[in-house]
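Re: [ENG-882] Designed sequences occasionally contain unexpected residues at chain ends

Forwarding the minimal case from QA. Structure tokens:
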């Protein structure tokens, strides 16, 4: 797939400062699980955001409409977790160590 360039994006955004602002907003949305607008597999979120801007799919006019509802953010996050990363509540219990706990205060 061809490389994305700043010039490709500037066809849809007025200047580089606005491009940075728009790309950062879109990147945050993608990291929270927002739907991808342009098919480009195995790209990081920043590159994906730039591709969407260059394709004219993301702009300041529609960036607010692309926000993922908060409940969907948690569902998307939970789906990304591996089974190894999920902590079982039973395994999280503290173990009791033999002996009495040590007091920091001295007996007077």
């Amino acid at each position: 797939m061809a490389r994305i360039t700043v010039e490709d994006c500037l066809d849809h955004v007025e200047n580089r400062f606005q491009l940075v602002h728009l790309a950062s907003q879109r990147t945050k949305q993608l990291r929270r699980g927002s739907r991808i607008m342009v098919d480009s597999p195995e790209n990081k979120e920043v590159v994906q955001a730039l591709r969407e801007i260059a394709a004219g799919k993301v702009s300041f006019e529609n960036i607010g409409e692309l926000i993922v509802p908060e409940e969907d953010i948690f569902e998307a996050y939970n789906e990304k977790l591996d089974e190894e990363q999920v902590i079982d509540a039973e395994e999280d219990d503290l173990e009791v160590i033999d002996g009495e706990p040590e007091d920091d205060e001295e007996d007077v």
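QA comment: On inspection the terminal residues look reasonable. The longest helix spans residues 16-31. Proposing we downgrade this to a documentation issue.
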